[in-house]
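Duplicate of #3305? Posting structure anyway:
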């Protein structure tokens, strides 16, 4: 007996709704199995991972801090993926956005003005967009693969940041630690509430998600993204340019990733250092697909993935597990999201050795 996938005549409406929930359930089930294999009580471990971080006010603020960059980056990636342009380098655009946005507080620390923070945010978005323009240029001019180019640029961005904070931007009064000087109060993203550290990054993320949803739902540009993503040939008949869409989608994605980068540095860290991200740019890919590439769905999935970061940190202290468990959960979630999405377009068939079909899943 063998298993085959048979393409459905039309996409399954049932699995379009159930797929993300099924992926979450399978992730929790296999996560419980993983905890059992590690010698931990599965129910206690899952409680520590997903429930315990939600019981304190300060941890809710931390959840918002981690959800902000994930949502911002994932919203931009959703436009790329729906237009059939595959940006895998958001982590690098996040890093470059943090660097370019930090130029003013690092090189001009004596400038104290209300304009400093707005200019930092704009410069961060521009830096991310320009870095994303590199794979756009190479794809439209030389037909290179944007997946490989954008991914390789991540390492260039990270090594560039490392060189800056260990070299020309190192704080001379920082006791030889690889970091820049601390940002002035005018360069720090303010907190939303007095009860915790949550800052305006989460507001930027929600506004961006709503704005992109409105564009995709009601504007001609959103229709252009959808048409070209489904069929470049049909887009040409409609008068749309696939080349311009490459530039638009990649630079929009890069701008939002760059904004996330400078928001993270300005709001959560307060200076540049060799490591400014736990992998937000890559985790945002999971956020985008778990949210069905819908900006409003991405808001919810962003909080879910942010909880894996927060829960992983809490579980390290409460039950003594490795920080790598967070990566395992995120990897399981991506695997099951993509696997369950297959059921939207395909049905599973069980084929006997003689070619007879003894049973068939037609749900």
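Output from current build:
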């Amino acid at each position: 007996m063998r298993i085959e996938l048979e393409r459905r005549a039309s996409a399954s409406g049932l699995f379009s709704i159930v797929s993300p929930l099924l992926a979450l359930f399978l992730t929790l089930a296999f996560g419980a199995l993983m905890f059992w294999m590690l010698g931990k009580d599965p129910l206690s471990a899952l409680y520590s991972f997903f429930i315990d971080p939600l019981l304190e006010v300060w941890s809710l603020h931390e959840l918002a801090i981690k959800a902000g960059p994930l949502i911002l980056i994932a919203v931009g990636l959703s436009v790329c993926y729906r237009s059939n342009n595959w940006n895998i380098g958001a982590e690098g655009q996040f890093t470059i956005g943090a660097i370019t946005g930090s130029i003013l507080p690092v090189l001009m620390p004596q400038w104290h003005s209300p304009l400093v923070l707005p200019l930092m945010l704009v410069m961060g978005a521009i830096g991310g967009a320009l870095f994303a323009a590199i794979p756009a240029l190479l794809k439209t001019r030389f037909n290179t693969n944007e997946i490989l180019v954008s991914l390789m640029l991540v390492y260039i961005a990270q090594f560039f940041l490392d060189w800056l904070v260990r070299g020309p931007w190192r704080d001379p009064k920082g006791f030889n630690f690889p970091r820049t000087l601390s940002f002035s109060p005018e360069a720090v993203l303010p907190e939303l509430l007095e009860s915790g550290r949550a800052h305006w990054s989460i507001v930027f993320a929600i506004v961006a998600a709503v704005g992109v949803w409105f564009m995709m739902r009601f504007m001609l540009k959103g229709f252009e993204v959808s048409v070209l993503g489904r069929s470049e040939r049909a887009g040409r008949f409609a008068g749309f340019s696939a080349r311009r869409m490459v530039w638009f989608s990649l630079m929009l994605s890069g701008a939002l990733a760059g904004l996330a980068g400078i928001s993270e540095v300005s709001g959560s860290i307060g200076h540049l250092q060799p490591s400014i991200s736990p992998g937000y740019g890559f985790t945002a890919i999971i956020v985008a697909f778990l949210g069905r590439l819908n900006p409003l769905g991405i808001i919810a999935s962003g909080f879910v993935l942010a909880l894996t970061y927060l829960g992983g940190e809490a579980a390290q202290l409460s039950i003594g597990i490795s920080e790598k468990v967070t990566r395992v959960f995120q990897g399981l979630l991506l695997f099951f999201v993509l696997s369950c999405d297959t059921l939207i377009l395909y049905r599973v068939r069980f084929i006997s050795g003689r070619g007879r079909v003894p049973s068939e899943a037609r749900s």
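Confirmed duplicate; merging threads. Confidence is low (pLDDT under 50) at residues 359-363. The two ends are 20 Å apart (CA to CA).
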